[in-house]
Amino acid sequence: MFFTSEPYHLKPVEQLVLQGTSFCNIDCTYCDLSKESRRTKSRMPLDLVLKLIRELIGEALLASEFIVVWHSGEPLTLPPGYYAAMIEAIIDMCEKNAPGVAVSFDFQTNATLIDNAWCDFFRKVRLGY
């Protein structure tokens, strides 16, 4: 039976997939985003990301090892500074409000935009594996 009379308990969240932008620099036929979406240059705002993290912390739903994945669209169409600000704010929030949580970051990328600036950035952040 799908529904039960017992309360539903969520498991800790181990991974949060975020879309910094839906914009993409290429046009893959297999992409699950619409062509219109892939041409939109809007950005996910920092306050929305922090609201999500704050809610997860407030509900005690962060796993002890928590990964934030930047995915969909092409994350590297945004500058490294965008992610530097996001990552710094997420780490700061977790350190202050969920000190037992180890947070790391992943990027799902088509890799066509990786240059020296991105390599320098990747050396500075806690990337997953």
TrEMBL record:
Keywords: Iron, Iron-sulfur, Metal-binding, S-adenosyl-L-methionine. It holds the Pfam family Radical_SAM. Signal peptide: none annotated. Its cofactor is [4Fe-4S] cluster. Residues 21-125 form the Radical SAM core domain. It comes from the Bacteria. The keyword Hydrolase does not apply. This is Radical SAM protein. It comes from Candidatus Competibacter phosphatis. The lineage of its organism: Bacteria, Pseudomonadati, Pseudomonadota, Gammaproteobacteria, Candidatus Competibacteraceae.
